[in-house]
Amino acid sequence: MDATFGAAEASAPAALSDDPAAAPADDAARPVVHHRPVVTELRLSAFGAHRAAVFPLGPVTFLTGPSGSGKSQALAAYEALAALGSGATLEEAFPDPRARIPDRAVPDGERRRGFRIGCTVDGPAGPVRLDLAVQAEPALRIAGERLSVDGQILLATALRDPGRRSVQASWLTGGAIGVTRAPLPDDRLGTALLPLRVAGATAGQRQVLAAAEQVVVALRSVFPCDPRPDRMRAPVPPGAGRLLGDCANLADVLRRTRHECGTRHALLAAAARAGCSGPVEGLDVRAPAHGPVTALLDRGSAGPATELGRLGAGELRFLALALVLLTGPGVLAMDPAAELLSARQALTVLADGFDRGLDRRQNAELLRLALLSCGRGHVRLVAAVGEETAAAARLTPGVAVVDLTS
How far apart are CA 131 and CA 29, in angstroms? Predict the structure, then answer.
């Protein structure tokens, strides 16, 4: 899109070029290539309270800052990019787009306002940048998108005709053609559509496909998680044993891990001993043949088992988050890229209010589990935390703390 979204977005890029050959080479040194596609940077050029914000993301990243500093907004932007990478429409990814318009943004001459976000995905194809401009008013639609590697634009889209529900896209082809131009829908991420549109017959097309697939794999391997203790107390009907984002079906998932993965279940039981009150010998389930599933804390010889529904809210959140950190895509209700082996993907957990309702002991145990799981490269964690947790994390090697304090 050639126009900005108003004077309030002066810090954002003025336009996303639609010519894949127009960008200069990037002289910056290339970072170390990751073997699994991972998001290493989140950019909020103009999004809510954020202006020209760049957040580096490591294996364990904690966002901290006072209330209103934009921690939840940053996680919402990441979650929206993940949804778009999985094929969601703009309306599905941004159910309340006006809430994402930058503060004090002024409409342009055509009454348009919107926001800009982006990310960098590192992997075998090198660091790939994805930048997205979204028009929120008067109608929700993509205004411009750019996919680039080392400063070379591989895909660019622009909203040329507001009367049509499409954007003009151009992507690198190479060979005699150089660039291919075609319309794409204005409500879906063009990068996610490229594998269906590009044949891969030329070196340029193969470069475009490698970059697009790397971004899609990283964005699809995301699990937003916010355990809700009020939904976790009642027995649940038996199901597929895939954990929901609110962890309401925790008991059913414990039934599955208890029978299918003894090692993972034992690690979770050890975590329960560290984070739950009283003696804990293990985690058990009560699952009648034709009835709901109830999860239990086995108290051993100390007394009868305790139903998880009788635990405190902090204990329930702790157990749910510990399970998420110790598990993988096969146990979580998510849709990772099926065309790539799970060993070649890294799960990223997004957790707003990660330490909400937890005590210092529980926070320490979750941090230990995060470092244990994320240190292997299969799991990454991006979470919003309070200052006490952030202070402890600053003293812990392997944890990146991003302070959003103005």
Answer: 20
Q: What is the pLDDT of residues 40-67, one digit of tens each?
A: 999 999 999 999 999 999 999 999 999 9
Host H or E run for residue 166? strand 166-174
Question: Which 3-state string (H, E, C) describes 111-139?
Answer: CCEEEEEEEEEECCCCCEEEEEEEEEECC
54 and 402 Cβ atoms separated by less than 8 Å: no
Q: Cα–chain-centroid distance for residue 126?
A: 20
Pairing of strands 379-384, 306-307: unpaired
* CB-neighbour burial class of residue 145 (10 A; exposed 0-12, middle 13-18, buried 19+): buried
Q: What is the pLDDT of residue 5?
A: 33
The predicted structure's pLDDT at residue 305: 94
Give yes or no for a contact between 300 and 281, defined as CB atoms under 8 angstroms apart: yes
* pLDDT reading at 289 higher than 90: no
Cα dihedral across residues 192, 197, 198, 199: positive or negative: positive
Q: Which residue has the tokens 């401009």?
A: 133
Q: Which amino acid is at 185?
A: P
